[in-house]
Amino acid sequence: MKILLIGVGAFTHGLAKTLQDAGAEVIVWLSRDYAHFGPAQVCPAYTPQEFVSPVELLNNQPCDIMIPMSIDWATQPWADALCALLPVFCPNGEALQLERDRAYAQQIGESLGIHFPRSFVANNRLDALAFLEEFPGAYVIKNTLCSPTSPIHTIVCETLEDTLSWLDRIDYAEGVFFQEYMGHKEAGHIAFVNRGQVTSLISNQEYKRAFAGNMGKIAGAPLGGIVAQDPNDEYGLCERLIAPLQPWLEQTKYTGPLQVTAMYQNDEWSVIEYNARLGVMCGPIIMRMLENPLDMLRAVIDPEFAFVPKFVADKKLGCSVTLAGYGYPFLEVTGPAFPIKISDTSKDIWFNEVTGTEGQILADGHRLLDVNGYGQNLTEAIHNTYAILDTISCSNSYYRNDIGLSLWPPGND
User: Fold this and answer.
1) Which residues belong to any copy of the ATP-grasp domain (predicted)?
2) In the predicted model, is pLDDT for residue 280 greater than 90?
């Protein structure tokens, strides 16, 4: 099987290597102008200067399936031509709106009996004030349309006063999505959906705040996470929050990964978002946990093929931790190209914003790399992950030293 990945950084590096180790041939089309070093260490990686689009690359090097890092691929002018050339491990069309449009996802989910927090789309500041006067409280502020280039990234407000303080500072260009604040008890579940049929894979927790103790701002991507094999839906997240979507999934011929993230409050799970792709943190871990990851892709390529997940016995739990560089998460603060030293390169270390020169690896941004470790239980997975970080050093960098010590299992503080 030959696979095209569209993306950059640690997600693409990790996915390329884990898929290669499973027996696939992998090439990458680098969709952004940074974080090229990691993917280029393990497989052919091409820039838009070499191939102006992935369609041009596919005409030169045909592949069997494409896996995207971001849903933005579907809005590109070459998207239809790409879909005509090969299957995509991500839904398209109306099915992709489940992630793309938060208000649409809530409308569909609520129509099928799934619980969501109260929400409102404000087109301007006056809309927002009117809503908050009618329904005062704390709200999480998001862009209505989900995209890595959104003018607003998630702002968590824990009081009404916090919420009001942001109204003059946010960009209403695409509409602002106000979602009722539901506390700290968050968890996720990822399933594989093949033409509407749902197969549970894992449950997970992402640590989205910048600093240990779940303190600081919500970062642009998680600083770490826990992933647990969960084909039997131990916590009921799939049963409550994904399975009720079945009629809509079948209607839209939804095919690809589907992640739900939800909050637990008053003995009830409420959906805060759906994602229609492999998570940046979870993707490489899922491929390592499966004995047969290529079978999941084969089921997308061949409608007659039935995917039955087989899990690796000694990788029941996975842990991911991000090494962040100088200034993170405040992107306006930048530092020099500090050297990164790694004494054991045999582990799952996935490079993000780094570069290489004259045998050195150098910091080239704020999120430097991710490390993944595994175990038969949580304690072992956490220990193995931090043991990898002990082999890495970079001046003025940091990582959260508490991944897995809170918010797990699902429903816990």
Assistant:
1) 106-305
2) no
